[in-house]
Model the fold of this input.
Amino acid sequence: MGYEMNREAIANELTRRQVIAGIAMAFGGLALCTNEARAEIEEEISRTAESIHQEASFKASRKRVYEALTDTKQFDKVIKLGGASTALGSEPTKISSEGGGVFILFGGHIIGRQIELVPNERIVQAWRVVDWEPGVYSIAKFELREQGSGTKIVLDHMGFPKGLGEHLAAGWRSHYWEPLEKFLV
Done:
């Protein structure tokens, strides 16, 4: 009997929170909520997640930059220019050119799936380091923007394990942007 009452109480609480949130959003967000309702909604939102935002410019067309990031042979050359080709593992570079396809980078140290590929415009990947906990993937989104005769990559990387932001940000610079710049010359 106690279990049934608990289940019903939980269901009622969930329904109450959903109703409060729905009403609040329909009438202008949290501003119109009571203090109690606002506190309940805000406690469900994490504000502790780290993310990386970087912008890198290259003297190459968006098409050339896109291909360098999505073509196995080209990106393998980028990796070698960065000096990380054998230091992190021995798996060969593999990059699928199809949404849902897999990629293996840096000797198998970085793996994932292509979530969205919009040629010459956007690459979105479910991206992980092999020694992260099983099932943990981050999202790496590359936006390719025209910048005069060149291209600016806007990277947003989020959802990685807490505490890795500085390490990953340095890795993007030294293992992606610096060797990509050398490759595209």
Residues 1-7, 9-14, 23-27 have pLDDT under 50 and may be disordered. The first strand starts at residue 51 and ends at 58. DSSP finds five helices and seven strands in the chain.
